[in-house]
Write a structure and sequence with these properties.
The protein is 78% helix and 0% strand. The protein has seven helices and no strands. Helix 4 packs across helix 5, helix 4 crosses helix 6 and helix 4 runs antiparallel to helix 7. The chain is mainly alpha-helical. It starts with a helix and ends in an 11-residue tail after the last helix. The protein has one domain.
Length: 178
């Protein structure tokens, strides 16, 4: 590595290790999810990994806040998606309806603002599973499985954030003007 590259690297990360902490969290958590889901369930871990990334943060307090919102809104979306799928079947027009209902339930009934976009995303995951398989029962089964993967990813993301914060705490950012 050249001297100029070393100087750039030092200037870039001198007082800001958040990106490096987050990269370490993502590396550890995605590896865990990959091994768990491929080895024990023979599943593609992409749903869990994408959820883990969304629920992770180098700062535990923020990760817990995101985790709470993501879990609540995932459950709202899953419930709405399952009800629409079971009641309405696998009609393509059920997708926008389920997503809109999930938004309304999240915004006006549950009132969990953090990650409230997760509710329609999860409803879409459930409905899409039914559309993909052209079967209400298979759609419910696949939808619940995918939502389980999403929830597992969230849990692993928060647990890894917490463990990493104990092993390698994120330093406080320097105070401006000091």
């Amino acid at each position: 590595m050249t001297n100029r590259a070393k100087q750039w690297l030092v200037r870039t990360i001198r007082d800001d290790w958040v990106g490096i902490h987050f990269a370490a969290n993502v590396l550890v958590a995605s590896t865990l999810l990959w091994v768990m889901l491929r080895t024990f369930a023979d599943l593609n871990p992409i749903w869990a990994i994408s959820s883990m990334i969304a629920a992770s943060d180098p700062v535990v307090k923020q990760a817990l806040r995101t985790f709470r919102g993501r879990i609540i809104n995932s459950l709202v979306g899953c419930t709405v998606g399952l009800v629409v799928l079971v009641v309405g079947g696998t009609n393509e027009w059920k997708l926008p309806l389920a997503m809109a209902v999930a938004v309304l339930v999240s915004a006006y009934v549950v009132r969990e603002q953090v990650m409230f976009r997760q509710a329609p995303i999860t409803a879409a995951i459930v409905i899409a599973a039914g559309l993909e398989k052209h079967s209400k029962l298979t759609g419910v089964e696949l939808g619940v499985l995918r939502v389980g993967e999403v929830l597992l990813g969230c849990i692993v993301g928060v647990l890894v954030t917490w463990c990493m914060s104990k092993l390698w705490p994120v330093p406080e950012p320097p105070k401006p003007g000091i």
